[in-house]
Design goal:
This protein has one domain: Rossmann fold. Helix content is 39%, strand content 14%. Helix 1 crosses helix 4 and helix 2 packs parallel to helix 3.
Length: 153
């Protein structure tokens, strides 16, 4: 399948997705000559004309804008959105976005390959908050089973 990553998708995501999905064509709007700055209404028409089957975006408001909804529907392209929680910026936000897309995209592509018509997909976000992403244990206070007694702190 041929996937287009919208301009609002971080460019490093394209490199990682290409590594994971070697049997698919992955293009980022910023890497295509003359595509940067293309408005969403025109982007879907242009992507369909260029042979893309899927647009990946983190613009979750597209489906609330009538002209963009019409352009998406008319294009016939599958649309995959993921939410990037902007309060978690920088490396944490990018990591969560990449994790969300990389975990969900293979399953999504399998389903889209079977689909007989256009689909709109929302990937469930990976929670980047510290309390939900990691657990830290002080082995001096809560030693794991078989932890040696008197080991260094």
């Amino acid at each position: 399948m041929k996937l287009l990553l919208d301009e609002n998708v971080p460019l490093p995501m394209a490199r990682i997705v290409r590594l994971l999905l070697k049997h698919h064509v992955i293009e980022h709007v910023a890497e295509l000559s003359g595509w940067a700055g293309t408005k969403d209404v025109e982007l879907y028409t242009r992507a369909a004309a260029d042979g893309f089957q899927i647009v990946v975006t983190n613009d979750t408001k597209q489906l609330s804008r009538p002209l963009e909804v019409a352009a998406i529907a008319e294009s016939g392209l599958h649309r995959i959105e993921y939410r990037q929680n902007h309060k978690h910026g920088g490396l944490v936000g990018l990591g969560a976005a990449i994790a969300t897309v990389c975990a969900g995209l293979p399953h999504t592509l399998t389903e889209l390959d079977r689909a007989e018509s256009q689909r709109l997909v929302s990937l469930n976000a990976v929670d980047p908050s510290q309390q939900n992403r990691l657990r830290i244990v002080d082995p001096a206070s809560v030693p794991p089973k078989f932890w040696p007694v008197g080991s260094r702190k």
